[in-house]
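hey can u check if this looks right to u? its 404 residues, i copy pasted from the old doc so theres a chance i mangled smth
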Amino acid sequence: MRLTAGIHIADTARVVTRSEAYDPPEYVSWQADASVLREWDQTLDASRSRRRIVDCLTPREHLDLFAGLLRFRFMDTFLKRWVKQGVISKAWLGTGEEAVTVGSVHALRRGRSGDVVGPMIRNAGAYREMGMPMAAVFRSYLGTGDQLCKGRDLHIGDLEYGLVPPISMVAALVPVFAGVALAFKQRHEERVALTWVGDGSTRTGDFHEGMSLAASLALPLVVVVQNNQVALGTRVEVHTRAPLDKLHVAYGVKGYTCDGNHVLDTYAATAQAATDCRKGRGPVLVTATTFRMGGHATHDEAEARDMLPAALFQYWGRRDPVGTYEAWLERSDLRLEEGAGAWVQERDALPQERRERNRFLLAEVARAAQEEVERAASEALESRGTAMPDGSDVDQGVYARACD
């Protein structure tokens, strides 16, 4: 696959709509930047092995990746809207970091008896990409009773989809996933366990214990270090002196680094890590560099803007993972219509010019993703009136110890 020569920003019109009320300011009037698009291409060409992995992606897989980014972004928009409307008190968002989640998940084997993932708060997009209905994610925020945890917890999962519920304490899933990976190894299954941690999470005892065990037993575990530059309110250079991309050396395991705002680079790096694990060369640390475009949650976005330099938001705002991938797909020579589905064949005609055709197809993907998220949010809101927990099963599914 080759890209068309040159980068003509005037020809790169955005098909993804932006919201002044809900998107970061840097995204509202986002336009493709020629230097950033050159960086994107340079990242793809920097590694022959990763380029080969990316070149094997079909048009359908590219559109699925794009749809995944969009669904995650639109889900965050609805959650933020609910906060402003008073439906929920706050939400933890992955805005600006979508590529770390979506790229990683799409590099795994999904489906029954496939790989297993453990999302953290900024990886909620993994639920839908692993197959869970998006309405279930919205219901978890609403605390309705028609979900797996019956309204008991915001943190959800479903092993039917290969999803282990997260734990509030950061990095607590690392030893859990070392155990999952140990089970895969003992059963001689070519399956991989993957979880994400933030940059600050790498300084916890749970992370160290889990990685130490996984390394000593050579387990098929992938841990994605999602370096978004800040741990709650502490800048990465304050809490960490050693470079995170060298952390794997401390455990004697393999490590990869990738651009966490570049969905294809993240996809390829995770694919490399998963292959290593299936060949018995795990565990693997993947360090993805990205940036948190908001606060720790919706309640402290203003604080984050005061605490972090405006130049950081501007720099990473130009590297919006949704917009840059959209621009790359639009100017590519991919035959996206081959992966678009039956509705393309039902049309009388598509635009003849390649870029116009790609733009049209991407707009259709964006429309479908937005409609899916809107339906899911509406369905979840209906549950508030029909399926709220009534307390009758409060003592079910829990454990207690009798006291003298």
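Confidence is low (pLDDT under 50) at residues 1-13.
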